[in-house]
Amino acid sequence: MAASVELDLQPLSLESLPTDPLLLVLSFLDYRDLMSCCCVSRRLNQFSSHDPLWRRHCKKYWLLSEAEKSRSWKAIFIDTYADLGRYIQIYATLKKAWDDLEKYLFQRCPRMITSLKESVREEDLDAVEAQIGCKLPDDYRCSFRIHNGQKLVVPGLMGSMALSNHYRSEDLLDIDTAAGGFQQRLGLKQCLPLTFCIHTGLSQYMALESVEGRNSYEIFYQCPDQMARNPSAIDMFITGSSYLEWFTSYVNNVVTGGYPIIRDQIFRYVHDKSCVATTGDITVSVSTSFLPELSSVHPPHYFFTYRIRIEMSKDALPEKACQLDSRYWRITNAKGDVEEVQGPGVVGEFPIISPGRVYEYTSCTTFATTSGYMEGYYTFHCLYYKDRFFNVTIPRFHMVCPTFKVSTARMETNHNECAMDEDEDSTDTDEYEDRRRILDIPVPSGRGRSLQLKTSLAAREAERPGAREEAARSSGREGNRRARILLQRDCGGASSGGQEDSRGAMDKMNSILLTIFIIVTVSCSSGYALRCYTCEQSPFLCRTNLTCSYEEDACLQIRFVHLRTYSCWKMSQCTTEQVANYFNADSFRFLCCQRDLCNKSLNTMLICLQHLEKGCIVLNQKSIQIHKREGAARTG
Q: What Pfam family is a match for this entry (predicted)?
């Protein structure tokens, strides 16, 4: 009796637990504790190897299913851990994101699935780290152990955006292409490109080290500071704090329908579910998107596009069919400044809305503040009762640019190097009313779209009293300076200041005139290779240039609203018709000139205009704005 009481008083241990309670306790342990129990005793080793215990961990950490079981769950877990163990805390999150994305794309965009690449090995990632001299974050490595990005094709996996004269589609770069684009230059030091658009050259970068004001593994769009002297001054629009957050949030927006699928592409429009207004049987909803490639922090210029959906209920009566006549916008920036816009139709169309029909269109606007909002109404008339008009509310929708960081290398602003239009908060691009900031010069055109153009700084400068005389004097001084340099070079070296002063005034004048004559002669000869600025659809001033071929004897600048293209050209093709046909454009301004680097900015247009009558080496100069003929449909 005493012995049995003494036995009952002994402390209870795992060793003495019956089988079922012991397995229940072990089921609450994590994989590390379960492995530790295997080393405690023979009995615990036996129970810790119970296969159902490891099935839970295989599903939790590796997302493995019963169909994928080929041997014991414990063996599968150990082998997978040996390969992917360093990513065990994030693998399931990224694997689920990839699985969800593939499943969604297979149903909605099957063509995009074929562009995905197979996974890479650990050795490949280690080799890239050795190549670039920086450590890759584990979440980035883990994602590429699942899929090695995609091929450089269109459409891009990371979303698209399209306007009438602008298209962007970002591919997720594979590891080798990304490593080839690794940046070590000032402004983007130790930055790895994640995406790339073959149309615009736009990339999102990930900072691999905390330098130049960035945090490690921060993801951003680069935005050159157009007002700084230092070319390494690059501002940043932040898109993610880590690769894991950046990728999973994007996938969530895609698979939940936050980003619409349009023409088998993912479009990065964000729709606020509260941004819907219903008037009678007509519902209007709006989604918006920020375009970093057309925006800048310095100067403040934030570009947004919005997509509007107009739908009539399918239960509406047939006699409720109507046609849109006009629009009214009330545009407010972050400072509270208000601008009102009215105009006929939308993007040059007057859509008819009938029961069950949907009409969608895209337009854009800019702000000089980081945010703003728009609201307004459409005016319709009934098709059955043509004298009956009514307004349909457009809900207020807000546009906010992402968080940005200012470059630490930013230097003193140089306004002379920033000759672009400093737009105020602009109207929507549908607007073509006769306003002070907008010029529309009708020219015959057979196409169906028309864009507005802001009055150039050059045109305003030309109207200033004395501007023509100042420019002439400035150009004369510059011509004298260049002539002296060329003359000294041709004579075998620079003369000393005393020797130059000792020359007679007549000798200096003759030398200058002779040198100018030589410059003109060489410039106009067939053997002269012109140099021109060359950039394609740039929202900023062009900084790159090249030597043209001998057939190209002119520099061209063509401007479409906010975008400019600079290139070499042929003077014989500097006609409105040939430029319009080549660029497939309706509304633009263009300049042709025959001086080195004369096509840089609107100021250049002004100088050429002023000097055309003064004998400047400019054989042709045009500044044209075009829209549809009177009575034709206009667009925004």
A: DUF525
Percent of the chain with pLDDT over 70: 73
* Torsions phi, psi for 141 (to 5 deg): -60, -45
pTM comes to 0.66
Query: Helix/strand/coil (H, E, C) string of 55-99?
Result: HHHHHHHHCCCHHHCCCCHHHHHHHHHHHHHHHCCCHHHHHHHHH
Give residue 605's pLDDT band: very low, low, confident or very high (50, 70, 90): very low
My answer on whether 610 and 466 are in the same domain is yes
Residues 191 and 175 in one domain: yes
3-state SS assignment for residue 13: coil
317 beta partners: none
Do 568 and 612 lie in one domain? The reply is yes
pLDDT digits (tens, 9 = 90+) for 216-227: 999 999 999 988
State how far the Cα of 236 lies from the Cα of 220, in Å rounded to an integer.
6
Residue at which a domain ends, from 39, 66, 85: 85
Within 8 A by CB and 6+ apart from 170, the residues are 156, 157, 158, 159, 160, 195, 196, 197, 202, 204
Output the domain CATH number for residue 208.
3.40.1580.10
| Total count of domains within the chain | 4
Say whether both 419 and 282 belong to one domain: yes
Query: Token pair for residue 327?
Result: 């629009």
In a domain, 319, yes or no: yes
**Which of 407, 431, 455 is at the close of a domain?**
431
Tell me the residue ranges of DSSP E strands in 302-411. Answer: 302-312, 322-333, 338-344, 352-353, 358-367, 371-382, 389-400, 404-405
Dist. CA 356–CA 314, nearest whole Å: 4
Residue 507, token pair as written in the block? 């000798």
What is the DSSP annotation of 233-271? -EEEEEEESSHHHHHHHHHHHHHTTSS-EETTEEB--EE
Take residue 150 and report the two structure tokens written for it.
């995609």
Q: What is the largest CA-CA distance in the chain?
A: 137
Kindly state the tokens that stand for 204: 């999102």
Nearest-angstrom CA–CA distance, 93 and 144: 13
Considering only 27-31, 61-65, 316-320, 502-506, which range has the smallest mean pLDDT?
502-506
**Cβ-based neighbours of 18, under 8 Å, separated by 6 or more:** none
Same domain, 454 and 597: yes
Residues 418 and 365 in one domain: yes
Residue 392 tokens read as 């349909």
Altogether, the residues listed in the chain come to a count of 636
| Residue 75 forms part of a structural domain | yes
Q: What is the DSSP letter of 481?
A: H
Distance CA 227, CA 299 (A): 6
Give domain status of residue 257, yes or no.
no
Do 364 and 334 have their domain in common?
A: yes
Range of the domain at 48: 14-85
Q: Are residues 79 and 162 in the same domain?
A: no
In tens, the pLDDT along 67-78 reads 888 899 999 999
Helix (H), strand (E), coil (C) string for 526-555? CCCCCEEECEEEECCCCCCEEECCCCCCEE
Q: Residue 527 has which token pair?
A: 């053997």
